[in-house]
Design brief:
alpha/beta; Rossmann fold; 2 domains; 7-stranded parallel sheet; about 15% strand; binds nicotinamide-adenine-dinucleotide; binds uridine-5'-diphosphate-4-deoxy-4-fluoro-alpha-D-galactose
Length: about 350
């Protein structure tokens, strides 16, 4: 059985689905601070059987001990965490407590229970403003400018030191680039509970007429069209990356770092025009100054994951946008005329 912390969240839910489709038993542990039980029901609907679910906090050592005592956990995918950059600036202690202390508590409980296989949701944010593109795992980690990024880098350090001190650990640090998209069925996707910070969820709400305009943060970057370039990766490809990492860690000990990205970057304007092309929906834009802390360019060299895990992202930008839009239309229906929605769903 595999424990997925944060499995009611966006990425964890897709990972849980793919693990279950492969035949693994999955236990989700989530405190639901940024998700809801509905997602667990949706996972059951998509897969055709229910995952286990424990409503608990990764900072709660006693709850974790009980989980490891009661269930035959062989490995953990640790997705639980806080991820809003702006909020992390306002509430740094909450971020360090959840993302760093929560990870420490989880690792302590795992070690005491004799479970030494761990896949961790890290982030390309640990590279900071990397001078070299594409970014390989050998690139030095940078100095993240916000507590969220710092907490991810600190958690990585915790896990590296831990594995260096005890050869029984097999740890995969998965550095996600920019996960977007949704499950192909339209039944699972990202459900922002606050105003979205990230491009895609914000764009979807503008396209769905829940918000007036997409603000483009910066049009004077040293990029071909002046807007920021990122490596968007389909959440289903990302989920597959976790499965491959888990297989690798069954055979290998130590700490292994993999970038999960496509290797191709798109600018904000390229994303918007691809979205308009795929869905037929126009997205009103407003150009604004750069967002503090943003970098101009960030895309992966995914060669290590390809070589070691046999993993490459299979879905392109248009597919990501189509799947994200299907999720949005089916679950947050607002836009008129309805034909627009139906047309984009049929295209999928
Ligand atoms: P999410 O907020 O949708 O999911 C995180 C889940 O963790 C939520 O269900 C939340 O309720 C749960 N959680 C938070 N604190 C918890 C705690 N103390 N105990 C138990 N559960 C807790 O976010 P996501 O996009 O699915 O991200 C998952 C992980 O991937 C996070 O660690 C995030 O930092 C990392 N990550 C995300 C992105 C991205 O763009 N989405 C990029 C890089 C890394
Ligand atoms: N952007 C806009 N308008 C918006 C939101 C974003 O123009 O409303 C732009 C940003 O300036 C940036 C691009 O869209 O150029 C992508 O921004 P996101 O906020 O979607 O993503 P980031 O690359 O800033 O950060 C994301 C996650 C981090 C993670 C990082 C890894 O939020 O948690 O990817 O690369 F660490």
């Amino acid at each position: 059985m595999i424990l997925v912390t944060g499995g009611a969240g966006y990425i964890g839910a897709h990972v849980a689905v793919e693990l279950m489709n492969r035949g693994d038993a999955v236990l989700i542990l989530d405190n639901l601070c940024n998700s809801s039980r509905t997602t667990v029901q949706r996972i059951a609907k998509v897969v055709g059987r229910e995952p286990g679910f424990i409503h608990a906090d990764v900072r709660n050592r006693r709850a974790l001990d009980n989980v490891f005592k009661e269930y035959p956990i062989e490995a953990v995918v640790h997705c639980a965490g806080l991820k809003a950059v702006g909020e992390s600036v306002r509430e740094p202690l909450r971020y360090f407590e959840t993302n760093v202390s929560g990870s420490v508590t989880l690792c302590q409980a795992m070690a005491d229970a004799g479970v030494f296989k761990l896949v961790f949701s890290s982030s390309a944010t640990v590279y900071g403003d990397c001078a070299q593109m594409p970014i390989a795992e050998t690139c030095p980690t940078g100095q993240p400018t916000n507590p969220y990024g710092q907490s991810k880098l600190m958690a990585e350090h915790v896990m590296r030191s831990m594995a260096a001190s005890d050869g029984r650990w097999s740890v995969g640090l998965l550095r996600y680039f920019n996960p977007i998209g949704a499950h192909f069925s339209g039944q699972l996707g990202e459900t922002p509970t606050q105003t979205p910070n990230n491009l895609l969820p914000y764009l979807l709400q503008v396209a769905n007429r829940e918000r007036d305009v997409l603000r483009i943060f910066g049009s004077d970057y040293p990029t071909p069209d002046g807007t920021g370039i990122r490596d968007y990766v389909h959440v289903m490809d990302l989920a597959e990356g976790h499965l491959r990492a888990m297989e690798f860690l069954r055979e290998q000990t130590g700490v292994h770092i993999w970038n999960l990205g496509t290797g191709r970057g798109y600018s904000v304007l390229e994303v918007v025009s691809a979205f308009e092309r795929v869905t037929g929906v126009t997205v009103p834009l407003a150009f604004e100054p750069r967002r503090p802390g943003d970098i101009a360019r960030c895309w992966a060299d995914p060669g290590k994951a390809a070589g070691q895990l046999g993993w490459t992202a299979r879905h392109g930008l248009e597919r990501m946008l189509q799947d994200a839009w299907r999720w949005q239309c089916l679950n947050f229906p607002r836009i008129e005329p309805r034909e627009v929605v139906l047309r984009s769903i049929e295209q999928g």
